[in-house]
Structure formats: C-alpha cells, structure tokens
C-alpha cells in the first residue's frame, strides 16, 4: 500500500490571494481530503523585497475563510540552511556554476540571438571561464549568480491532469537558482522543500509545466524521489484574461467583505473548467467527491464573476439556521433573531447580510406607504386578533378580499407597502407574524413603527 499523499499549496506572500489562487489551494486541499492525505501550506517568501508580513497573514486568514485548514505550515525564509546545503552539494557535483554576466550583457546577447533567428537561450559562456578569469571578474567587484546545468534531454512524466507530458530541456536556458546577493529564486527552495517534506503530489497551475522539466532534473540531481505532478487549467475571466494579484475585486478578501459565502467562491473556483456543472456545493466533502484531477478540462477555465451572485443566492436559500446564526451575529443582527425569522426571509436573500435589512423591516421603525387610505383603514379593521401565526395572512387577506372585492396585486401590494414601506420582500405570510399585531396595526394607521 502506498503512503498517504502529502500535497502543498505554496503561494508567495507578495499580494492578496484571489479566486484564481483559490483553485490550486482547493484542488490540493480536496485531493488530500479525498485520498486521506495531508495538506501543507508553504509560504514561498524568498523574495524578501516583495514578501510582506501583512500578505503572509492574509494568506492564512483567507484560506481559513475558504475552509482550507493546513495540516502543516512553514515559511521558506526560516529554512535557508537547507537551501545552502543543497546548493553546496550541487556545486560539488558540478551542476551549479558561477556566472558573472550583468543584466545588460545578457539582454544584449539575447537581442543578438533573436536577430539571428536563434532561440534566446543562455549560451553557457560562463562554463568556459578559467579560475583566473573568475578571479579577474571578482577583482572588478562582480559577484556571481549561479545557474543549474541542465541535462539537454527530454523530461517526461504522466501528468495527473494532462496525461503524457514532456519538456525538452535542450530548449531551455540553464535556470538561475541563486542571485548575486546570495538569495534564492523560487526553483531550488521549492524542490528542496518538496523533497525534504516528502511531498508526494505537486498540484499547481499549468503555467508551471516548463518548471516541472527543470525541477524533475533537480530532484534527480539531489538524489530525491520525484513526486507526481498535476497541472490544472487556469481560471480566466470570460474574455480570456488571466487573473493577476492586481485584480483586487476578485481577491478573497474583497469577496469576503462583499458578503459572498465561502462555499460560493469554492464552487466557482473548483468546478469551473471541470467535468461537473458549476453549481453551489455547500460541503467540502461533497466538493471533494466531485473533484477529479483527471476530469479537469485542458481548455482555460473561463468564468464570469457575476456567476458568484447566483451561486451565493442558491446557497443562502438553503442555508440552515445554525449556520446563518453565526454569520448574522457577526453582522450585528441582534441575538434574539429566531429560526422562524431566518426561514421567513432566506428565500429572498442574495447574501446573508441582507437579512439585517429584513430584521429592520420586521422590528421597525418602518415608514408605511399608504396610497389609498380608505382601503387600508378597512383592512386595519379586519386585522385578526392575535397572536399571529402562519395562517393569519391568509385569513386576513381572504377577509379583505371578501369585503373590498380587491384581489391579486391590487389586494396584496397596498398591504405590503403599508406594512413594510417596500414593494418587494419576503412572503408576508411569514413576515406578518414576526411583525406582530401591535406593530402591524400602527403601520396600517400610518404611524412610523
Ligand atoms: N510560489 C510558487 C507560485 O506562487 C509556487 C508554485 C508551485 O506550486 O510550485 O507560483
């Protein structure tokens, strides 16, 4: 029997997570859930200039909101010693070599290659430097950056999403693993960590396919087992535009602040571009059973952010009171909110937060709208005695209908306007008992109540 999977989500804390990042986070977390594995959250924070503590904290908060709770957590900035040791081994094996070109020199060389119709691949000039060349360059004040010497061969793997996949490493530049200031780029720390923690499945966006070719060689050079890889299609907006951390309104934080349910965001982030229809799925376990990497589409996962509204509304319409109560308490709706209230209003809500508006309509003050005072006065006289219950509305409107001959909209709309001050709203059969006889009568008499 093979060991339980260990998967990881490895964002760089250089911005707020957005719905496109929710996709790999969830695909990993759901994979672990489905296969009895564990989920590691790793902060890829080796870029010290762009990584901030605020973004790092936000990653944790946003994932928790999404319902993704890591089994393991660490940040790369705490693990430099491991990367140093790996770099030393690669140098000793002749797989990491010193280069001294400046950005400008590299750029000039690239232009020349392109001008000759050659691919802009690093020409490995630094490999032919002698010790005295290097000493001379260092004497000029240059510090080396370090490139990984790729084997010029095809790396092949069976991708968990894309099936047979390969990268021809002969067409790639030897990647820089260590900058001149000694800091690490993403590649080496990622492989060292995946190897050291025993990550079994690397599930990430298809923008990393080429990296996988390089990384497989790096696992091998370090003598580590190569994990399985799965590259999922990326979420794009309906016009095919990719999502970047700059698309602020689709950040998980703004979606949370706008009052969307995490389950709506999860459903859209995961089911878009899969074999399943995009629909609201409240439970993570159910979402896990619907998420099969092999059934993800190869085409971009296009979505329209307005789909969130429909998904959200459908989730709210079915939301049990216990769940709504916590949310409402956080939104400042008073404690005495009842299950009856929730069940009376939920079918009318696009977001849970709108319940607060109906709480105010029930409890007042409401300014009644009365267009036909005689009609409303007659209706007020027919208002049944209390206490009000689920059948009160029907009994009352039947009586008003019999007395006035009004029916349909002509019957219901004036009553709704007088009782709530609004043209639309939840079913009055549910709302009237919550408003209660006393307040209903005051409103029918035109008082603000
Ligand atoms: N930090 C990398 C990123 O944000 C991680 C990619 C990976 O999963 O290996 O893209």
UniProtKB/TrEMBL annotation:
Residues spanned by motif 'HIGH' region: 11-21
Where is the protein localized? Cytoplasm
Q: At which positions is ATP bound?
A: 245
Q: Name one GO molecular function term.
A: glutamate-tRNA ligase activity
Chain span(s) of sequence motif 'KMSKS' region? 242-246
| A Pfam family | tRNA-synt_1c
Q: Could you say which EC number(s) this protein's record lists?
A: 6.1.1.17
InterPro entries per the UniProt record, alphabetical: aa-tRNA-synth_I_cd-bd, aa-tRNA-synth_I_codon-bd_sub2, aa-tRNA-synth_I_CS, aa_tRNA-synth_I_cd-bd_sf, Glu-tRNA-ligase_bac/mito, Glu/Gln-tRNA-synth, Glu/Gln-tRNA-synth_Ib_cat-dom, GluQ/Sye
Q: Where is the Glutamyl/glutaminyl-tRNA synthetase class Ib catalytic domain?
A: 7-309
- Please tell me which top-level EC class this enzyme sits in: ligase
Which keywords fit this entry according to its UniProt record? Aminoacyl-tRNA synthetase, ATP-binding, Cytoplasm, Ligase, Nucleotide-binding, Protein biosynthesis
The reaction(s) catalysed by this protein are: tRNA(Glu) + L-glutamate + ATP = L-glutamyl-tRNA(Glu) + AMP + diphosphate
Coarse class of the primary localization is cytoplasm
The record's subunit annotation is: Monomer.
Member of which family?
Belongs to the class-I aminoacyl-tRNA synthetase family. Glutamate--tRNA ligase type 1 subfamily.
> What is this protein for, i.e. what is its function?
Catalyzes the attachment of glutamate to tRNA(Glu) in a two-step reaction: glutamate is first activated by ATP to form Glu-AMP and then transferred to the acceptor end of tRNA(Glu).
What protein name is recorded for this chain? Glutamate--tRNA ligase
Q: Which organism is it from?
A: Methylorubrum salsuginis
């Amino acid at each position: 029997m093979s060991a339980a999977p260990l998967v990881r989500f490895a964002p760089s804390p250089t911005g707020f997570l957005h719905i496109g990042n929710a996709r790999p986070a969830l695909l990993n977390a759901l994979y672990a859930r489905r296969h009895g594995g564990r989920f590691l959250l790793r902060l890829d924070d080796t870029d010290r200039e762009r990584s901030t503590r605020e973004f790092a904290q936000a990653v944790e908060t946003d994932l928790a909101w999404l319902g993704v709770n890591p089994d393991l957590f660490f940040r790369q900035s705490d693990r430099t010693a491991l990367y140093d040791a790996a770099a030393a081994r690669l140098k000793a094996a002749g797989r990491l070599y010193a280069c001294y070109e400046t950005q400008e020199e590299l750029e000039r060389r690239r232009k020349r290659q392109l001008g000759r119709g050659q691919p802009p691949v690093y020409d490995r000039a630094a490999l032919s430097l002698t010790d005295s060349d290097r000493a001379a360059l260092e004497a000029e004040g240059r510090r080396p950056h370090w490139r990984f010497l790729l084997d010029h061969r095809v790396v092949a793997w069976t991708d968990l999403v894309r099936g047979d996949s390969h990268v021809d490493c002969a067409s790639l530049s030897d990647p820089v693993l260590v900058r001149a200031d000694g800091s690490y780029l993403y590649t080496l720390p990622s492989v060292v960590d995946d190897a050291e923690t025993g990550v079994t499945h690397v599930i990430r966006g298809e923008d990393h396919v080429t990296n996988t070719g390089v990384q497989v060689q790096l696992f091998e050079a370090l003598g580590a087992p190569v994990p399985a890889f799965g590259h999922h299609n990326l979420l794009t907006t309906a016009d095919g535009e990719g999502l970047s951390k700059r698309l602020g309104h689709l950040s998980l934080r703004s979606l949370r602040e706008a009052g969307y349910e995490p389950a709506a965001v999860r459903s859209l982030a995961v089911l878009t571009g899969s074999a399943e229809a995009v629909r609201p799925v409240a439970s993570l376990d159910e979402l896990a059973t619907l998420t099969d990497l092999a059934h993800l589409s190869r085409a971009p996962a296009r979505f329209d952010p307005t789909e969130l509204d429909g998904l959200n509304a459908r989730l709210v319409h079915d939301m049990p009171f216990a769940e709504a109560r916590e949310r409402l308490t956080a939104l400042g709706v008073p404690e005495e909110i009842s299950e009856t209230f929730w069940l009376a209003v939920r079918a009318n809500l696009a977001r849970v937060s709108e319940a607060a508006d109906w709480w105010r309509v029930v409890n007042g003050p409401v300014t009644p709208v009365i267009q036909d005072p005689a009609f409303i006065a007659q209706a007020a006289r027919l208002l049944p005695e209390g206490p009000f219950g689920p059948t009160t509305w029907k009994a009352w409107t039947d009586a008003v209908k019999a007395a006035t001959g009004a029916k349909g909209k002509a019957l219901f709309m004036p009553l709704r306007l007088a009782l709530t001050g609004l043209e639309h709203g939840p079913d009055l059969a549910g709302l009237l008992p919550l408003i209660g006889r006393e307040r209903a009568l005051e409103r029918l008499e035109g008082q603000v109540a």
